[in-house]
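Session log. Operator J.P. requested a structure for one protein chain; no other inputs attached. Running the standard single-chain path with token output.
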Amino acid sequence: MKQTLERPSRPAAQTAQHPKVNSPESEAGNKRNWRSVHPRTHGGKGYSGGSNLRFRNPRKWAMIWGGLGVIWIAIVWLTGRLLPAESTLTSLMDRNLAPAWAHPFGTDWLGRDMFMRTLKGLATSIQVGLLAACGGGLIALLLGLAAASGKAADRVISWIIDLFLSVPHLVSLVMLAFVFGGGLPGVALAIALTHWPNLARIVRAEMIQLRSAEYIHISRRLGHSRRRIAVQHMLPHLIPQLFVGVLLIFPHAILHEAAITFLGLGLSPQQPAIGIILSESMRYLSAGMWWLAFFPGLALLLVVRAFDVLGGSLKTLTGTGSSREVV
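Structure written below.
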């Protein structure tokens, strides 16, 4: 005969009146176990999100790098513009000096300080790039708006864009710079007339996409003209794309300005420019004067890279192109 001993169960009311009290040691153990089971829901060191989001946010990094790019470009441009003309005068007593504390970039065959000449040349390149980028952006905007006025205009503008894209930049730059007589205005105009097709294609594509929007159809039914629709309803949507495109034209404009001045078809030899400095330094590299080309070329590369970073940062901040990721 089996005897079963039943353990008397505690009444529910008594259990409710005496809740379980955890000690500090048990609470710490429960927290450790909970962290090990749910490692990604805790804001500790092992969690890849949380406080680390600010390091992975592309918009914050875009603001940081964009701000650094603006500061660097402003320092270079203002310093080059504010330098006196006497800073680039010849000094035959200081010819062919290697880089030192008194002359960080050394001196050339006429005793001119290469650091001062480089800053002057970069300021000239930035000025040419500004004129060329603004001119190319204006041409792209006008042609993009005209492409939305009708199918006939769209066909003509597409043909013009394809025509300019089929000609190499350097060939058209040399031809236009020779036609306009060289100099700073001629070089800027030649670069502006050859650097608008890519941006015009982007503007035209945006206009075609906006033309099929619902509010555009409503405006047409209300009797608004095509010009009014293009200016009042389509133009505000093009401003971010246009601004980013103008900034991205800057590095190409600066490099092409240096290329045609290097070939002797741009600015005058008396005017300091990076292309002229590099062209003149080629004759002295075999003599061991490497600093004549190294430091001006490096400075030009840093300025071009700053404009590229600034354009990419603005592209991320405005959400244009493929930079629509939001963390």
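Operator note: Residues 1-21, 34-51, 322-327 have pLDDT under 50 and may be disordered.
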